[in-house]
Amino acid sequence: MADHPYSPGEGLLGPQTFMGLPFAPDAQGARAFVCGVPFDCGTHPTRVGARQGPAHVRRHSTTVRPFHPERGDTDWRQALGAVDVGDIAVVPSQIEVSFAAIERVMTRLQEAPGAVPFTIGGDGSVSLPLMRAAAARHPGLVALHFDAHTDCMAPPAPGLHNTGTQFWYAATEGRIDPARSWHIGMRGTLAVAGSFTTPQELGFRMLPLAQLLERGLRAAMAEVRASVGDAPVYLCWDMDVIDPAFAPGVAAPSWGGLSAREALELLQLLQGLNIVHVDINTVSPPHDPTGAAGSLAAQLLYEAMGLLHARRS
């Protein structure tokens, strides 16, 4: 008789990894690896906590089952030989030293041939050092950024960083190609003006949530795929693109967002793109008492593994 999938084992439990992946010190031999980036700037006036996001998403990844009969009935973890390499050592609120560490460690991890990073933030600021590492390995990098906000504001002073400046730096440093990059899902109120005009001036393509829903998910993503072509894609998914009814535990919630079903469908409609990095961020465990945001983030990360498997196979 086959073992029940929830039968107890005979050994010892190791560290908490994403969906029980093998823990490894590097990504050698893997085609996908999960890495936590437990950093936040520590400057939000009321909702600091995204630094705890990686552990929270791993904890709630136990709610994700590995087989998806509608999409091939394959365990994508095993098919990709995926591993969990743990967390990058950072110091929350210490921006410069932590950004340097994130870029340095991710650059080293990406030396493993064919290994695609699946990173768990952390607040949205971590996307900048991650994009810097990705751009060094993948010239012509394109960003697909799903978020309630553009995170593309000029810094208040040269060299300063916060959770709203990462895409401004990525564009002005030449790390990504703004003309083929997209901000998708923006909505709601903001603290300062210019959230749309600044990225437009830099050349980004913009698809606010109202326009996305008016066009329809399938038609809108067909346009995105056509514009991106086979360019290397940095897929950045900020969990506040989802309505707080479905993902309450985020750093900057904004009402009127995507439903869980719409988020999953949007991600699946990206099939075929040359995704070279998946960045899921902004889960804030202190504001996620039921684990809904952590569980949904874990499901989205695993669905993104399905995208990689479909392209590779």
Automatic annotation (TrEMBL):
Q: Which UniProt keywords apply?
A: Hydrolase, Metal-binding
Taxonomy, superkingdom: Bacteria
Q: Which InterPro entries match?
A: Ureohydrolase (IPR006035), Ureohydrolase_dom_sf (IPR023696)
For whether the record's keyword set contains Transcription, the answer is: no
* Family, as annotated: Belongs to the arginase family.
What's an example of a GO molecular-function annotation for this chain?
A: metal ion binding
* Any one GO biological process: putrescine biosynthetic process from arginine, via agmatine
Protein name, per record: Agmatinase
Q: Where do the TM regions start and end?
A: none
